[in-house]
Amino acid sequence: MFSSRPYDRRFLARANEEDGFGHELLFFDARLEDATVRLAEGSPAICAFVNDDLGRPVLAELAAHDTRLIALRSAGFNNVDLSAARDLGLTVTHVPDYSPYAVAEFTIALALALDRHLSRAYTHVREGNFSLQGLLGFDLHGKTAGVVGTGKIGGIVAETLLKGFGCRVLAHDLFPNDRLRQLGVEYVGLDELLRESDLVSLHCPLTDDTHHLVDRRSIAVMKPGVMLINTSRGGLIDTGAVIDGLKSGRIGNLGLDVYEEEARYFYEDYSSRLIDDDELSRLLTFPNVIVTSHQGFFTREALEQIARTTLSTVRDFAEGRPLANEVRSRPDAHDGRHGVAA
After folding, report:
1. Which tops the pLDDT comparison, 336 or 138?
2. Tell me, what's the pLDDT at 332?
3. Which end of the chain is less enclosed by CB atoms within 10 A, N or C?
4. pLDDT tens across 196-208, in order?
5. Cα(216)–Cα(218) distance, rounded to whole angstroms?
6. Of 31, 73, 260, 262, catalytic
7. Residue of 31, 73, 94, 233 marked catalytic
């Protein structure tokens, strides 16, 4: 178990015992990468997380030392070289459905916190400042919200904005959801969504087609003052372009739970260390930006489901059963969750 924090260990160990899986679990705080791959020597299965390195060199080292299963405790698998895994005879699984509500609710929380300046308001009051100056927000009701990717998470976000807040909801997806259409969600081209939306929320996988989906060209298309939310994958956004968009005012509010170069920083405590990533440091200076450290999934329900699904997958693999969660294709192939055209 790589990149395992105390909460991972607690939920995985409890599920292993209470559900009778009986696996021998070895926990490592370290990320899986070239320098740490030898820790897995002799393990028939390894469990990795979103920022672990599962490129060809690491996979080759794992395969050379008897690993046969890569069990990801995440839905995304863009950090895995799937062609290398196939060449090396490695099976890759993931957890596609842990709790879409966790990430969807966090997305809405980010939007509300930005809109109503909750971070600044909290700080002001803690300092004895009860003025409302600088805290003016806007009603979400009646605004146009654009949802890019309407799989399970994006679909919940779209429905919540539509039915819960009275937004007009535009969506873009290669595979439109008929139920959302019947509810009143309008499927449109990406540029139309960007032009008309007051809020844009990203819920698509990271692929070659969606890498830097939000770049200088797409930001220029957006409505001035747009709120942009990304709780999916950091690589969907060109960070430098977004910083310029914030400086120009084209982007009015930005909420990020993911960051393109997050692997070094997220899930670590840098409070007494230097953050020498210039773009991340710059983002943290804007008063209209909230950056969180990939915590959208982080609920009790989600961690329980991740633990059960991961451990049951390892058991099924060991017993030669079919693997319902096996990753067989790149995430841009339609897998019933979402596929988005850039």
Report:
1. 138
2. 39
3. C
4. 999 999 999 999 9
5. 6
6. 262
7. 233
DSSP notation for 93-161 = E--S-S-HHHHHHHHHHHHHHHHTTHHHHHHHHHTT----TT------TT-EEEEE--SHHHHHHHHII
Give the span between the Cα atoms of 97 and 302, in whole angstroms.
9
Residue type for position 80: V
Q: How many Cα atoms sit within 13 Å of 214 on the Cβ side?
A: 36
Question: What is the band of 142 on the pLDDT scale with cuts at 50, 70, 90?
Answer: very high
Domains along the chain with CATH numbers:
6-98+299-318 (3.40.50.720), 100-291 (3.40.50.720)
Task: Give the torsion sign (CA, 95, 24, 65, 36).
Answer: positive
Structure tokens at 73: 């405790």
φ, ψ at 316 (rounded to 5°): -60, -40
Which of 294, 308, 337, 338 is catalytic? The answer is 294
Crossing angle for the helix pair 100-115 and 118-126, nearest 10 degrees? Answer: 60
96 closest CA partner among 16, 201, 205, 18 = 205
Q: Is 294 a catalytic residue?
A: yes
127 is catalytic: no
Name the pLDDT band for 14 (thresholds 50, 70, 90): very high
Q: Give the number of residues written for the chain.
A: 342
Alpha carbon distance, N-terminus to C-terminus of the chain: 35
User: What was the pLDDT predicted at 97?
Assistant: 83
Average pLDDT of span 33-56:
96
For 55, other C-beta atoms within 10 Å of its C-beta total: 13
Q: 337 pLDDT exceeds 60?
A: no
Q: Where are the alpha helices (DSSP H) in the chain?
A: 6-18, 56-64, 82-87, 100-115, 118-126, 152-159, 178-183, 190-196, 216-221, 239-248, 278-283, 300-318
What is residue 329's predicted lDDT score, i.e. its pLDDT? Answer: 57
Order of strands across the sheet with 45-48? Answer: 45-48, 69-72, 91-93
